[in-house]
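Predict the 3D structure for this chain.
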Amino acid sequence: MSRPFPMLSTEDPADAPALVAALVSFDQAVQALIEQDPDRHGRFSRAYVTAIFRACLLPPEPGAGVPRGRPDPEIAQALKRWIQAQLLRHPGEGDDHRLTAARRAAHGFWLQSMACPSDDDGQPRAARLLEGLLALTRPA
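Done. Predicted structure below.
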C-alpha cells in the first residue's frame, strides 16, 4: 500500500485512476485488518488508525517525491464519505468519543506526514503515538 490518498487533484482527469486505486488499496488494507481482529469493540477504528500509520511510515516511493501542500477538498470529501459508510457498517463506533479521537488523530498524523515525513528518529515517536491511539480503541 502506498501513502494514503496521495496529493492528487480531482481537477486533473489523469489523477482519477490513481485516486480510485489509492482508495481501493486503503480500503483493502483496512478490511484485512478488520478481519484479523477478534475484538469487535473499536475494530474499524483500530484498523483505520493502523492502516494510516503503516502507510505513512513507509519509505517514499522511488521517483514519486514527497507530497506537499494541502489535500484536495474533493479527496477529503471522498474520504469522509468512505468513513461514514464504514461507521454504518460498524455501529457504535461513530458515537464513541475515544474512537473518534483516535481516528481523527490518525488523520492528523497523515496530514502531518505529508508536510514532514518521519525520519529514522521519528519512527519511535510514531510507534508510541500509534500505541496510545490504539489504547483509545480498547474498552476503558
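The chain has five helices and no strands.
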